[in-house]
Design a protein that fits this description.
The chain is an alpha/beta fold. It has helices spanning 16-31, 50-58, 73-76, 99-106, 123-134, 155-167, 180-188, 199-217, and strands at 3-7, 40-44, 65-68, 87-91, 111-116, 141-148, 171-177. Helix 6 (155-167) links the parallel strand 6 (141-148) and strand 7 (171-177). The longest helix has 19 residues, at 199-217. The site of magnesium ion (MG) has 6 residues, from helix 1.
């Protein structure tokens, strides 16, 4: 049976689609597969369908199989029954309107990844999603700091970590840094495993491989909030 990993935060623009696509890509790239059969399925449950647009631009180069299923409630509630994949990564809507979709998907989740941008304005909406929808679903979940630009210094990052620690939220050690490459990728129809082989691209890719290790290595029930205040490692802060 596939492991179902749901990426959720009802605040728009925090990086759900970016994380879903690139995490699915590095896991598919690592597990291998053939031209006709991938071990990874990416699912978009967002009516805005930005993952679908990205997947269409990628075409045959998309490293995983893909389904757009916001209008298919039957499939939404049966993701766990899909047999032919090892891992399913699910993108969810960034709005309160589609809470029923998110709730349906959470019944299928093995674990939930909650992207959060290191800026105070994003704390309250994330808190609402976590406390009202994600936590009550009763599956393991962790906050993922996304889109931190090291050139801005560490003040926002530290403040966000303090907030996470005060809330006693479980969090990933990995921080996904801000890279222009990630912003451009949907329009170019590429994922992190297809970036050019240069130093910046390797660094950008490394963040997602680190995240994949955390997601797959611990079955979604890994280090708790204490680890999140230990600071970004030297390789993840440059
Ligand atoms: N780590 C990153 N580095 C650079 N750009 C990023 C990063 N994460 C997200 N972005 C950019 O931020 C914007 C919002 O990201 P994304 O679309 O993934 O968020 P979302 O949570 O899926 O949004 P929505 O709620 O609208 O679905 C996009 O332009 C994306 O390219
Ligand atoms: Mg999105």
């Amino acid at each position: 049976m596939a492991g179902v990993h749901v990426v959720a935060n009802q605040k728009g623009g925090v990086g759900k689609t970016t994380v879903t696509v690139n995490l699915a890509a590095v896991v598919a790239d690592t597990l291998g597969g053939t031209a006709d059969s991938s071990p990874v399925l990416g699912v978009s449950t967002d009516p805005q369908a930005s993952m679908l647009e990205w997947a269409e631009r990628a075409g045959n180069e998309l490293p995983f199989d893909f389904e757009q299923c916001h209008d298919n409630p039957k499939l939404l509630g049966k993701l766990r029954e899909i047999k032919q994949y090892s891992h399913i990564f699910v993108d969810t809507p960034g709005s309160l309107e589609n809470e029923s979709i998110l709730q349906a998907v959470l019944t299928q989740a093995d674990d939930v990844i909650v992207p959060l941008e290191p800026e105070p304005l994003s704390f309250n909406p994330a808190t609402r999603s976590i406390e009202r929808v994600i936590q009550p679903a009763g599956v393991p979940w962790r906050v993922l700091l996304n889109n931190w630009d090291p050139r801005d210094g560490t003040a926002d990052l530290e403040q966000t970590r303090e907030y996470i620690a005060a809330k006693r939220w479980p969090a990933f050690n990995t921080v996904i840094r801000h890279y222009k490459l990630h912003t451009r990728a949907p329009a170019d129809g590429v994922t992190v495993v297809q970036y050019a082989k240069n130093r910046v691209a390797l660094e950008a890719r490394q963040d997602f491989f680190r995240l994949a290790l955390e997601v797959l290595g611990t079955g979604g029930d890994g280090p708790r909030h204490a680890s999140a205040v230990n600071g970004v490692s030297s390789t993840n802060g440059g």
